[in-house]
Amino acid sequence: MTPLQPSPSLPPSPALRVTTWPVPVFLLLSAGLHLLALLAVLRSPSDWPWALGAVVLNHLAITLLGLWPRSTWLGDNITRLPAEAAARGEIALTLDDGPDPVLTPQVLDQLDAAGVKATFFVIAERAAAHPALLREIVRRGHSVQNHSWRHPHAFSVFGPRRIARELQQAQAFLHGATSERPTLFRAPAGLRNVFLDPLLHRMGLRLASWTRRGFDTRDGDTQRVLARLTRGLRGGDILLLHDGHCASTPEGRPVVLDVLPLLIAQAQQAGLRFVRLTDAWPAQTAVATINASVTP
Ligand SMILES: [Zn+2]
């Protein structure tokens, strides 16, 4: 069993910059709505159906916003590179759900052949089963970030304690195994709830989603997956593919292996340059600390 504790040779963690969680405006308004509903019922008890209906609708809206991966209504969410990076023609390739002992080495070779650096949002439990592969990703110059410990499909209905466990267990393992502290988190399937943002804030992590995704876990058609990523492709875009849970082409090949060389060639012909997400936000690396305790 791979130990989950950080190794004793870790570099010292920078002090956690503790700041107040910036409550999203939508949640402030939601709290105000709850208060108004309560006051309305206290003033006129017969109005309770209206008050209850307003509160139920509000909760429905909060739930739906959590199921919208690129939404920023529930908190900070990176969906594009910063404007300066976009102006330089930079784009970011992100690969989720690995590492996979068969697929990830082939993806790494394709990236090396094209001179492309990517960002791997790994499932930490999988990384713990293949620690040498995880270190190889880092050795080849790619960025490893937090995609939860187990990638639970019910993540978006978890309470704060279970979400915190998923974040912390992954964070502790990835920091210990790579000596590099993840600063970004991507929610499983991009789905989340209202508890996630304050936890990320306390751990010095930022939520990162994407600009366009290939749906390569469901679709094995190379041209369709490629078209979703390249239609309207421009500087600043964050692209999502998978080196785990990847669909197969009719010939039985993981579709990502057919898409990647075509995608890279098209982007490079268009004058775009691949960067890691951490290249776009280098200052963020000083914020996080493995010692950030989360006790919701
Ligand atoms: Zn995933």
What is the fold's blueprint, element by element?
Layout: H1 25-43, H2 48-66, H3 83-87, E1 90-96, H4 103-114, E2 119-122, H5 124-129, H6 131-139, E3 143-146, H7 160-178, E4 184-185, H8 196-203, E5 206-207, E6 212-213, H9 222-230, E7 238-242, H10 255-269, E8 273-275, H11 277-280
Parallel strand pairs: 1-2, 1-7, 1-8, 2-3, 4-5, 6-7
Helix pairs in contact: 1-2, 4-10, 7-8, 9-10
Query: At the first level of CATH, what is the class of the largest domain?
Result: Alpha Beta
CATH homologous superfamily label of the largest domain: Glycoside hydrolase/deacetylase
Q: From the 3D coordinates, which CATH architecture of the largest domain would you assign?
A: Alpha-Beta Barrel
Query: Kindly, what is the distance between the CA atoms of the first and last residues, rounded to a whole number of angstroms?
Result: 28 Å
Instruction: Using the coordinates shown, work out and report the CATH topology of the largest domain.
Output: TIM Barrel
Class computed from helices, strands and strand pairing: alpha/beta
| Uncertain residue segments | 1-15, 284-296
Q: Which ligands occur here? A: zinc ion
State the order of secondary-structure elements, H for helix, E for strand. HHHEHEHHEHEHEEHEHEH
Strand content: 5-15%
User: Can you tell me the overall shape?
Assistant: elongated
Q: How is the biggest beta sheet arranged?
A: 6 strands, parallel
User: DSSP helix count?
Assistant: 11
Whole-number tally of structural domains: 2
Indicate the percent of residues in helices.
40-55%
Task: Determine the mean pLDDT.
Answer: 90
Give the number of DSSP strands.
8
State Rg: 21 Å
